Amino acid sequence: MEIMDIHGGKTLAGSVTVGGAKNSTVALIPASILSHTKVVFDSVPQIKDVENLRAILGDMNVPSTIDESVLTIDPSNIKQVPLTSGKIQSLRASYYFMGALLSRFGEAVVSFPGGDDIGPRPIDQHIRGFQALGATVHFENDSIHIKAPDTGLVGTMIKFDFISVGATINMILASVLAHGQTTIENAAREPEIIDLATFLNNMGARIRGAGTSQIKIEGVESLSSKNSHTIIPDRIEAGTYIIIAAAIGNGIWIKNVIPEHLDLFLGKLEEMGVNMQIGEDSVYVYPTERLVNVEIKTSPFPGFATDLQQPISSLMFLGEGQGVIHDTIYPKRVRHIPELCKMGAKIWKHENEIRILKSDHLQGTDVTADEIRAGASLMITGLIAPGETRIHDAGNILRGYDRVVHKLRSLGAEVRIIDEQ
Ligand code: EPU
């Protein structure tokens, strides 16, 4: 168990480079098992989720090596095994092995996924999709058994009841090698889905429409990777550093950003009074003079990302007026609230909304990060607040933020990780 120890209240300056997107990476690694040749990913974030996914690959006799941000995976001698080890439960995205194994072997046995506790996270849409492609699904001993007919999966029309990133990705993975055409209606449009489709298309897949709400997949015989794939920048990590820069920066460059991925977020920051220079692949945040709080409603891409609702609440502790956040995707993503209150923050839940007021008496103290973005908001608040903040269960932050301690220190923050005895 790790503790993140922060001595806050300092002004930060300099530049920081954003790593590859966590939520792309955690789909790309399971997708790599569809290749018959070695796969190379560039710009891989150094996060615990990657270590855990590599351990799962190891269980399937798929060796991998990592050299800084270059990950090489060799799935040429893959073995079909049930994925029921503890590592599967360490992250939500392990459910992408369901779609990938089903494609590669016509069968998948995978434990129920774990991951962040941000309220109920059912996978009914994934299961409905697998069944629509002709697979049978049954549950046994905490695992899901999915099996294609002996003649293989058959492309079909899959219309989701609502937008789901995970179900869209799992359907792409399951249908790339199916017979005929699959059409996904009401598909999620997140940039990470485009990234996955680009990777698969470069291996020979035929996926059109990724990034729109209708995706068409023409099944192909087999897939082989030829070139390395550079993972897109992490828009949530970028957003987190932009918030830090707006809160306590004395001029910070955030590099390796695709501003189009953060459109609504950047618009909200401007509305709050944050002064930025938005370049082609970077954002410069000027020191902030006065902030005003705003209302935010999260929604699927291109809307305001749920993954930034907790981080931006920390910026609202510095703004005039009442901030209101309505997380329509994960209304129960509120476990950061009592922890922030321990630090003197004025934040509370009111029906389906989170309300926030300027908090002039923030003070470092002992808090616990229950999940990744709750952890991010505690980290930001710890950097703002004077005194010492000790974030317990900081592994939840390290799970998803690339070399976060190194990056914060390079901006002048006093932060370190210590092992909890
Ligand atoms: N949902 C269902 N049934 C399903 C699938 C989803 O009811 O079968 C519901 C969910 O409970 C949620 C909504 O639909 O209310 C949207 O969920 P979605 O499936 O889009 O989320 P996800 O794929 O499980 C990914 C990211 C999350 C991010 C969400 C929303 C990964 C590995 N995770 O989760 O990232 O919050 O999309 O954008 O890509 C994070 O990085 O902090 C994180 C939690």
Automatic annotation (TrEMBL):
Compartment(s) of residence: Cytoplasm
UniProt keyword annotations, A-Z: Cell cycle, Cell division, Cell shape, Cell wall biogenesis/degradation, Cytoplasm, Peptidoglycan synthesis, Transferase
GO biological process: one example? cell division
List, alphabetically, the PANTHER family matched.
UDP-N-ACETYLGLUCOSAMINE 1-CARBOXYVINYLTRANSFERASE (PTHR43783), UDP-N-ACETYLGLUCOSAMINE 1-CARBOXYVINYLTRANSFERASE 2 (PTHR43783:SF2)
Q: In which pathway does it act?
A: Cell wall biogenesis; peptidoglycan biosynthesis
**What does this protein do, in the record's words?**
Cell wall formation. Adds enolpyruvyl to UDP-N-acetylglucosamine.
- One Gene Ontology cellular component annotation? cytoplasm
Which species is the source of this protein? Xylocopilactobacillus apicola
Cite a single Pfam family from the UniProt record: EPSP_synthase
Question: What does the record give as EC number?
Answer: 2.5.1.7
Q: Which CDD domains match?
A: UdpNAET
What main location does UniProt list?
cytoplasm
The similarity comment for this entry is: Belongs to the EPSP synthase family. MurA subfamily.
Q: What is annotated as the active site?
A: 116
Name this protein carries in UniProt: UDP-N-acetylglucosamine 1-carboxyvinyltransferase
Which residues does the UniProt record annotate as the domain Enolpyruvate transferase? 7-408
- Specify the enzyme's EC class, one word: transferase
Q: Write down the InterPro entries for this protein, in alphabetical order.
A: Enolpyruvate_Tfrase_dom, Enolpyruvate_Tfrase_sf, MurA_subfamily, RNA3'P_cycl/enolpyr_Trfase_a/b, UDP_GlcNAc_COvinyl_MurA
Molecular function terms, GO-annotated? UDP-N-acetylglucosamine 1-carboxyvinyltransferase activity
